Amino acid sequence: MRELPVQLATKLYGAAELIADQGLDNTKIDDIAEASGVPKATLYYYFTGKEEILAFLLKDLLTAIAGDVAVAVSAEGRASERLAGVVRAQLGVMLRNPASCRALVGDLGRATRLPELAAALSAAFYEPVEKLLREGAEDGSLRRAEDPMSEAVMIFGTVTIAGLMEAIMGAHREMDAIANGVARLLLDGLAPRSPGATGA
Amino acid sequence: MRELPVQLATKLYGAAELIADQGLDNTKIDDIAEASGVPKATLYYYFTGKEEILAFLLKDLLTAIAGDVAVAVSAEGRASERLAGVVRAQLGVMLRNPASCRALVGDLGRATRLPELAAALSAAFYEPVEKLLREGAEDGSLRRAEDPMSEAVMIFGTVTIAGLMEAIMGAHREMDAIANGVARLLLDGLAPRSPGATGA
DNA sequence: TGAGAGTTTGGACTATCAGTACAACACAGG
DNA sequence: CCTGTGTTGTACTGATAGTCCAAACTCTCA
User: Fold this and answer.
1) At what angle do helices A79-96 and A50-73 cross, to 10 degrees?
2) What is the 3-state secondary structure of B118-184?
3) How far apart are CA A191 and CA A198, in angstroms?
4) Which is the most buried residue in A104, A189, B10, B200, by most CB within 10 A?
5) How many angstroms separate the CA atoms of B27 and A155, rounded?
6) Which of residues 23-62 of A touch strand D (CB under 7 A)?
7) Which residues on chain A are in Cβ contact (under 8 Å) with B57?
8) Residue range A66-116, pLDDT digits in tens
9) What are the backbone dihedrals phi and psi of residue B40, each rounded to the nearest 5 degrees, phi first?
């Protein structure tokens, strides 16, 4: 895949919705060309095929998530508060890019089969969150995890499915309401808390 | 889709792995025919196309999950314990059918686009868990949820991603270890608990 | 100004594969 | 033996992903 001019990249976002709606294999290359305004021949000049176009869009989304998550992770405050920030960050990106987000989750399988995406996902989310969990154990705001990696994975799953549900349904709730719900589940769990001991 | 003879259904499972590995659209009908031992003409006698074959496999998996989840939901004990049972049930089915499970999550987007699957998923998981959450609020073993539906969705996401990760990685951990980790996150959350107040 | 490199595009072409058509065959029950 | 229901091989069609190429266009450097 050749280096992509910005202007062209921008046009491609127009195709994300199409892919999200129909799935990649129900979307003809010619449809993508038409929806984005980029001629087919040009698409093939830059990409080796459909999959690479999807991969580009998804990597872009993951990069956006990575950026916002990184900011949240290295903010001020206790780890538990920053974790809530991470949740808000990921949900924020997802709700701002519902089409790419639906395409990502919709073609999650393909995504897991694209190695560079797995790496991007890991860098965007798992590693920072894992680090955050360790810091939480230090500052006492989070319990010590036996297996921070798999907890990070679960956290990602929780946030992702919550965000996806909104993206599919068409985001009828405020982002903050959703983020609070997710953060509460993750921090406090479902069991009742004895009064006066909670995170964020 | 015609009523499917059991013998034929059994053969089809052999194709699930193929689909899980490659994704549906990289899998040729002829490959499915070869892998399952069911001739292409017979496949088209029963199914209208590829998608319907996938839908059959997924519906089958969801039915299995629905069955085990239903048992767990209506077991003895407090709701918190039964919720842990639900987690074990879903993970159990997923780990016993890693191929279908990967195919399901891999083609999740397609799945969300197949209305009967969305309905099956809802019946298999969301509704029973939502009911369980309400019961937990009654018996005091779970906190009262503001929005049980969306909590049920998040729970599903957490369990699913955890299970998927194992299915992809090749299940190096014991099912019980995974299930305990998931149940602990869901019930207790990540914030430290004051001693002596916890679920399951 | 103009040569040359890289980019952009239209359009024709090929190869692959999903899905169809159909005829032949198997095998049941009456 | 006849008829209906499943089963299968084979040949076919149509759609479309991806290739190829030549013409045009743009930018840079001399």
Assistant:
1) 150
2) HHHHHHHHHHHHHHHHHHHHHHCCCCCCCCHHHHHHHHHHHHHHHHHHHHHHCCCCCHHHHHHHHHH
3) 12
4) A104
5) 32
6) 28-30, 40-41, 44, 48-51
7) none
8) 999 999 999 999 999 999 999 999 999 998 988 888 887 777 667 667 777
9) -55, -45
